[in-house]
Amino acid sequence: MPGLTTEQLYEFLTTGRPIMKLGTIGPEGWPYVCPLWFDYDGETFTIAGRQAAKWEANIRANSKVSVCIDTYDSPYTRVIMEADAVMRTMPGCTRRPPGQYGTWAKKRACAISIAQRASPAA
To answer: Any long-range contacts for 34-38 (C-beta under 8 Å, 24+ apart)?
Structure first.
């Protein structure tokens, strides 16, 4: 599978409705993978969560995460990344955050932003 150009990478991460598989490390040391909707601005992935989410507690305890965003149809495309997650409470976290979260995030107590420090690699 050939690598993606910068433009192809941005298009893949910002169009359609791909799902991010976020991998965190649980308190017992086991991997924990959770599928999440996300928004990507060219540098930062933003995901919405609630304070009771297991992946959020895992990140608070250990910021190391891995991410996989892929397709199930040909041409098979994937983005795999490892990063130290930085959690930030978004302004107005009791309201629906901007982006593609719609009514899903409206039901959540707070939206969390996770910024990646490593460049995504296709």
So the answer is: 37/100, 37/101, 37/104, 38/69
Domain ranges of the chain: 6-115
Inter-residue contact 96 to 28 (CB < 8 Å)? no
- pTM listed for this prediction: 0.74
Residue 56: predicted pLDDT: 86
H or E segment and range at residue 104? helix 102-106
CATH 3.40.50.1820 at 6-115, yes or no: no
Query: Rounded to the nearest 5 degrees, what angle is found at the Cα of 94, between the Cα atoms of 90 and 99?
Result: 55
Question: Amino acid letter at 111?
Answer: A
